């Protein structure tokens, strides 16, 4: 019995949307240093507040120095969620 010829298969070409690769936008170069600086300054703020027996960094605001220090740390932490 005679054998039939096989067909030549066309090479695979991906769909048009798969050909273009989109590069995810990265963070600006200043983003990571600012993020780390905020976290470190906040930590130092709280440490200075405790080491100086609650007199510094800003004596007039008293215990609100803790809120300021933790606020700086939280701002840095919130920036980590946007870092790419």
TrEMBL record:
GO process annotations (BP): cell division
Record's keyword annotation contains Transcription regulation: no
Residue ranges, compositional bias (Basic and acidic residues): 1-10
HAMAP family, alphabetized: CrgA
Family: Belongs to the CrgA family.
NCBIfam families: PRK02251.2-1
Official protein name in the record: Cell division protein CrgA
Organism: Nostocoides vanveenii
Name of the gene this protein is made from: crgA
